[in-house]
Amino acid sequence: MTKRTRVRFAPSPTGPLHMGGVRTALYNYLYAKKRGGDFILRIEDTDSQRFVPGAEEYIIEALAWCGISPDEGTEGGKMVETPSEKHPHAPYRQSQRREIYKDYALDLVNRGFAYYAFDTPEELDSVRAAAEARGETFTYNHQIRESMRTSLTMTQDEIQAMTERDNRWVIRFKMPVDHIIKMNDQIRGEIEVNSSTLDDKVLWKAADQLPTYHLANVVDDRLMEISDVIRGEEWLPSLPLHYMLYEAFGWSESRPQFAHLSLLLKPDGKGKLSKRDGDRLGFPVFPLEWKNEQGEVSRGYREDGYFPEAFVNLLAFLGWNPGTEQEIFSLEELTEAFSLERVVKSGAKFNPDKAKWFNQEYLRKRDTGSLASDLSILLKNRGIDAEMTYVANVVELFRERAVFVHDFLDMADFMFTAPENYDLKVKEKFWKEDTSEILDQVINMFSEMPSFSKEDIENRLPAMIKENGWQMGSVMNCLRLLLVGESKGPGVADIMALLGKEETILRVGRKSLLP
Ligand code: GLU
Q: Does residue 11 line the site of ligand 1, with CB under 6 A?
């Protein structure tokens, strides 16, 4: 029987989730859902020094916004703390599981796979300094562990005395010597490392009674019956140790399969996409806006106006492709199409223009009614209460050019409020001596029109201009200036028909306001 697919996203709450982190969560989600499996959220907060308040809530909210909420680990937007049928492994926050790990660390010591190390920070500093003086770098490994203050060279009584004396000791993994660790990665294939190149990592610290990432991560993956570990490339160097831990615990048979995802790269491909790049290069790197403790705000895809579906779609394509021409995928379609075989080994360059393209595609797919209701919320925030059918007509007229819903606010601002300022360069170019008089005649003609549709306007206005021998360019551009305030926007007849006869006459009549 094949084991049930269970994957976990295991972030440390050290700040907001970077889009690379969301991609890791998304790939885990897609992988699990395709197999009818479980997607679990576990909070790896054993490093209390790096804990950032609000980060956990942020992570949960970001996943919910993307539509990839975990099956296990959260309930009602909070981490589950007590076990239940649906969440049998609670708590899912490692700091609340602290009692679990010590026994595992001690078990390794008792069976000779780990040892106590009593070196004080001062002692470690001096060994490090001595090594540096010799031009070497200090590594706590098989070559030096016998010469350090460890349980490897002590009697049982000495060890007991030392562990009882104070809390300044740790448990380190005793990395075997000259052992070829053969690993398999679902994206990278076979990997081999000689254990002699690895150091003796700390697994557990008496000072805070907490495990380090490695021990907690491996133990929890085991206890939570994780079948596949899909995580960022930065954890690949930890894989040999994790393999050795599975071996030491006697769990190799049920070890999860591993897949390490390549990095997201800056738009120019030079280096990893960092948290600071967004603000520097003008695009968001976080799913949601984040305000740090100093009050500095980093922009988020949500607040920048991205649709969550577009964000998920563009994220999926950063490091994966379906092998076909299709680029627009719903979450369900992604679930269907996703496979680790099609995840690339090389880094994925982030292209901010392509990100916008995705959003525009989703905007084009939206029906006018739903865009109008999104837009009317933005309008209300600006104190503008417009009728829904009117808003929908504006959306219809401008939708081809919008990338985000908020673009309507900029592009079509004049459809909701009459211009207060006028572009004088336009006036200089098109306003003639007789323009004011011409516009009076145009207003008269408008007021006599029984109906004011775009077609009606197109039938009457150009004909009137021609009959009177007026300059088409001059009249039309001056009309636009009075309606819009500048020379942007769709066709003048479109604008006038939508504004309606009354508003059009009002705006054109304001010509005396032109400086
Ligand atoms: N806590 C680790 C992180 O912050 C998890 C790595 C893993 O998935 O094993 O990314």
A: yes
